[in-house]
Amino acid sequence: MAKKLAFDRALFTSIILLVVFGVLMVYSASSALAREEPTGVNPFVVKQLAAVMVGLVAMFVFMHLDYQRFRQRAVVYFALGAMVTLLVLVLFSPTLNNTNRWFFVGPVSIQPSELAKPAIILFLAYFLDAKADRLNQRPVLLILVAVVGLFSGLILMQPDFGTAALLMATAGVMLFVAGLSWRYVITAGLISVPALALAIYLEPYRMQRLISSLNWQGDPFGAGYQVRQSLIAVGSGGFSGLGLGESLQKLYFLPYPHTDFIFAIICEELGMIGALFTLALYGLLLWRGLTAARRAPDRFGELLALGFIALLGIQALIHMSVSLALLPTKGIPLPFVSSGGSSLVASLAACGVLLNISQHS
Question: Is the bond leading into 257 cis (omega within 30 degrees of zero)?
Answer without folding.
Answer: no
